Amino acid sequence: MADFRFKKFVIRQDNCAMKVNTDGVLLAAWMELRPTDRYMLEIGTGSGVMAIMAAQRMVEMGHPVPGLPVTEIDAVEIDNFAAMDAEYNFKNVEWLGERVKLNLVNLPFEVYAQECGRKYDLIFSNPPYFSNSLKNPDQRKSLARHNDTLAQSVIIRNVLNLLAPGGRLAMILPVGEAADFKRKTDFLYGAAKKGERVLVQTREALVKTNSNKAAKRVLLEFGYFDKSSPVSGVVEKSVVPVMEECKYSDVYRELTKAFYINF
């Protein structure tokens, strides 16, 4: 598989079961980043493309801000071969220097979550999401695509322990899986006691392959807030059509123009 070239970096993905794709690029371009973000965590980094995009965005917003520490992005990957590509790609982002640190963690997410002593300002993931479907005979592709080893409940449980107060969780999921994820977080919200921190949805964008078609994916963002927070119930909603009238939409171009060579 050929390397994937972006404006400021090249992604080697020879050893990755899942290659660079629209879902991951959209999430990394869409999720909210803040100059004050100290620690970020990516669950299932694959080739490392989303972590590198997040690092580029931090640098382009002028980070590190004088007086603030350098941001560190911890990228967890269970697959040894994909981790090789991610490590190579992290080491070859020459323009990054010491402004943002990329740390590869070659462990299962649950193991890392139990060992990690950090609290994160942002956790993001383009997770495996197929359930009860025909699996690919390629074991590594099946691992990357199916949620047998990284179920939604596993993500939620560990994210609640890893987020710093006021932190965020950003994900991209198919429409059905997004609805399931929101039902789970809504249930936990309802069961939480007053003053307890929970995941509260703050943003959502429906992703359409074409403006005149139904959405296929949903970009989701949650905040880790006190249940009584005034942001509860307020969700910023939008639509991201990839194509419009046989060309890339203005919305998609605007989101990804800092990355794709042709935009």
From TrEMBL:
<dbReference type="InterPro" id="IPR007848">
    <property type="entry name" value="Small_mtfrase_dom"/>
</dbReference>
<keyword id="KW-0808">Transferase</keyword>
<dbReference type="GO" id="GO:0008170">
    <property type="term" value="F:N-methyltransferase activity"/>
</dbReference>
<dbReference type="GO" id="GO:0032259">
    <property type="term" value="P:methylation"/>
</dbReference>
<dbReference type="GO" id="GO:0003676">
    <property type="term" value="F:nucleic acid binding"/>
</dbReference>
<dbReference type="InterPro" id="IPR029063">
    <property type="entry name" value="SAM-dependent_MTases_sf"/>
</dbReference>
<dbReference type="InterPro" id="IPR002052">
    <property type="entry name" value="DNA_methylase_N6_adenine_CS"/>
</dbReference>
<protein>
    <submittedName>
        <fullName>Methyltransferase</fullName>
    </submittedName>
</protein>
<dbReference type="InterPro" id="IPR050210">
    <property type="entry name" value="tRNA_Adenine-N(6)_MTase"/>
</dbReference>
<feature type="domain" description="Methyltransferase small">
    <location>
        <begin position="25"/>
        <end position="136"/>
    </location>
</feature>
<keyword id="KW-0949">S-adenosyl-L-methionine</keyword>
<keyword id="KW-0489">Methyltransferase</keyword>
<dbReference type="Pfam" id="PF05175">
    <property type="entry name" value="MTS"/>
</dbReference>
<dbReference type="GO" id="GO:0008757">
    <property type="term" value="F:S-adenosylmethionine-dependent methyltransferase activity"/>
</dbReference>
